[in-house]
Design goal:
The protein is α+β, with helices and mostly antiparallel strands. The chain has 16 helices and 27 strands. It has three domains: 191 residues, Heat Shock Protein 90 (2-Layer Sandwich), CATH 3.30.565.10; 122 residues, Ribosomal Protein S5, domain 2, CATH 3.30.230.10; 208 residues, 2-Layer Sandwich (Ribosomal Protein S8, Chain: A, domain 1).
Length: 625
């Protein structure tokens, strides 16, 4: 029978490190929290290879006495607590005394520090938990820590790390959270010697939000402030139109500490009930301040979870504050013309007008409704174009000027997937083409009703078109003939650092789909190429939809499934949308292509594309039987 024995200190250290140090970003987080607790006004971070090979944190804080350096690497040794009661009055970010001991057990660490009142400082090396003698160090006041070769003595842990881009993204996310929570700090981050961020004080929260997330988010924020007893809530919530497909842009802080809390997250989402569709998430930056004895931060070694003494009161505070603020805003959706909608087009191409004449409550495919297309004259060098009457009309240049004119919108690529090119407006049936005899009526600019031998078929236009496009895209991708448009001026898209890293990690797969992306630094991704089938849909909107998909998966599927899902996503965005009024010719062409695609009864996402009301059921309902 095995005997019970005491584990060696080296094994204990590695076990403890597994709870605190998951990846390089965990090291950065712990070191930054120590620097903040030391009263630093400036912190400089350098990493190499995503932090796997080097993490260097330099601060100008109070420093550590030479005699205390060995204790800094001892387990549960800290200057921030002295009694058990102090656990319920935590004023600092760190307090457990585990960070340096855990880091030192799985890396090669050099700690150099000098208090401002000392003439010289001291240096201590820790190699996998083994301490070297303390040496004299002549350096600036403050603390300098270098962590090299993370997990060098635990190769299994090292194998679980992701790519350099992904690990860098996680480090950037830790940096972002601290920068938002500590606006008075001067922070810099460099990766492989290249500056990623420099955040200088004084900086208000709104400015820092704009720095990390761009003007699109910053300009759609509403201030939130409320007090309830000892608790205070401040921060920003975004207009519902700024919603996302995941909760990554929900930043929640309690007493300056970034936290994950289901209760706060639920209160935030509940405040937006009726303003967001299912599966969409609000954007918010919220800070809760309350007495330290009202919150327990000693829940998990990572200190990312908290427990409130009066959770219901905090929940009600967040819910009420956000809901009241949103009610004071006019959140009526406003019509926004697509970017580049006024862009000139080559001679001979057509643009579907945004407004079409109404023909009763529906439009028959065989009717002689007034044509809703207008011919645009050839564009000129200065961006203007010749109007139908011969005059010159000024057209605003799109920020992602195409090397070739984009297909007009709303796009309806009604072509056979096996022989003809992916759609342009010129491929639509002309007014002189004979229309099919199948009767089709358009309802609510969203559905088609057809008379078939089996009965009355109701078709969801978007779902059917999505299926047709999906089949075309898949076939073209497999044959290597998927058309793309190269952007003369790449479109910059500002993303959170971890989302940018996840996107760039799948750069090759996106290129297969015609969506070219490149790293621009600092969380900005450039869109360089664009699938032609998407017409004039904004590249930024398509990329954000792709990003939402990528970050919503904790573990992405295999490559084939990944491409399938992204093709479905692109087909969905390129398909005709509810509210787009189709001409009689477009309706006829869409109906004709039902037989050219597989499984047209469902869209690629599994949503029904058509419903059949049989002749027998119709006769029965009207009591003709």
């Amino acid at each position: 029978m095995p005997r019970i024995q005491q584990l060696p200190p080296s094994v204990i250290t590695k076990i403890a490190a597994g709870e605190v140090i998951e990846r390089p970003a965990s090291v950065v987080k712990e070191l930054l929290e120590n620097s903040v607790d030391a009263g630093s006004s400036r912190i400089d971070i350098d990493i190499e290879q995503g932090g796997v090979e080097l993490i260097r944190v330099v601060d100008n804080g109070c420093g550590i006495l030479a005699d205390d350096l060995p204790l800094a690497f001892a387990s549960h040794a800290t200057s921030k607590l002295s009694t058990a009661e102090d656990l319920f009055r935590v004023h600092t970010l760190g307090f457990r005394g585990e960070a340096l001991a855990s880091i030192g057990g799985v890396a090669q660490v050099t700690l150099q520090s000098r208090p401002a009142e000392q003439d010289c400082g001291a240096e201590l090396n820790c190699h996998g938990g083994e301490l070297a003698p303390v040496r004299v160090w002549n350096g600036d006041s403050g603390t300098r820590i270098e962590v090299r070769h993370l997990f060098f003595n635990t190769p299994v842990r090292r194998k679980f790390l992701r790519t350099t881009a992904t690990e860098t993204g996680h480090v950037c996310e830790v940096f972002t959270r601290l920068a938002l929570a500590q606006p008075a700090l001067h922070l810099t981050l460099r990766h492989n010697g290249k500056e990623v961020y420099e955040v200088t004080p004084p900086a208000d929260l709104l400015s820092r939000i704009g720095l990390f997330f761009g003007a699109e988010v910053r300009d759609r924020l509403h201030v939130v402030e409320m007090e309830a007893g000892p608790a205070k809530l401040r921060g920003y919530v975004a207009d519902p139109a700024c919603e996302r497909g995941n909760a990554k842009l929900q930043y929640l802080f309690v007493n300056g500490r970034w936290v994950r809390d289901r209760s706060l997250g639920h209160a935030l989402q509940e405040a937006y009930r009726g303003l967001l569709m299912t599966g969409r998430y609000a954007v918010a930056f919220l800070f809760v301040e309350l007495p330290p004895d009202q919150v327990d931060v000693n829940i998990h070694p990572t200190k990312a979870e908290v427990r409130f003494r009066d959770g219901q009161a905090i929940y009600h505070l967040v819910l009420t504050a956000i809901r009241d603020r949103l009610r004071r805003e006019n959140l009526t959706a406003r019509l926004q013309l697509p970017l580049g909608s006024g862009q000139s087009m080559a001679s001979g191409q057509w643009r579907v007008a945004s407004t079409r004449p109404e023909v009763g409550s529906g439009q028959w495919a065989g009717s002689s409704a007034e044509k809703s297309q207008e011919h645009l004259g050839p564009s000129t060098a200065d961006g203007s174009r010749e109007g139908p009457s011969g005059g010159m009309e000024r057209s605003e240049a799109a920020p992602w000027a195409l090397s070739a004119p984009p297909p007009p919108g709303p796009v309806l690529p009604l072509t056979a997937p096996d022989t003809r090119p992916l759609p342009t407006a010129s491929s639509l049936p002309s007014a002189h083409c004979p229309l099919p005899t199948t009767k089709a009526i358009q309802l609510y600019d969203a559905y088609l009703v057809l008379e078939t031998p089996e009965g009355m078929l109701v078709i969801d236009r978007h779902a059917l078109h999505e299926r047709i496009l999906f089949e075309q895209l898949k076939k073209r991708m497999r044959s290597g003939s998927l058309e793309t448009q190269r952007l003369l001026v790449p479109e910059p898209v500002d993303l959170p650092a971890d989302q940018a890293a996840r996107t760039l990690e799948h750069q090759e797969a996106l290129a297969e789909l015609g969506l070219g992306v490149e790293d621009f630094g600092g969380g900005t991704v450039l869109v360089t190429t664009y699938p032609a089938v998407l017409g004039n849909r904004p590249p930024q909107a398509i990329l954000r939809a792709v990003v939402d998909y990528l970050v919503s998966k904790d573990r992405l599927p295999n490559r084939e499934q990944l491409l399938h899902d992204l093709l479905s996503l692109m087909a969905c965005h390129a398909a005709v949308r509810a509210g787009d009024r189709l001409t009689a010719e477009e309706i006829a062409a869409l109906v004709d292509q039902r037989d050219l695609a597989k499984d047209t009864h469902h869209c690629p996402h599994g949503r029904p594309a058509s419903l059949l009301f049989s002749r027998h059921e119709l006769d029965r309902q009207f009591r003709r039987l």
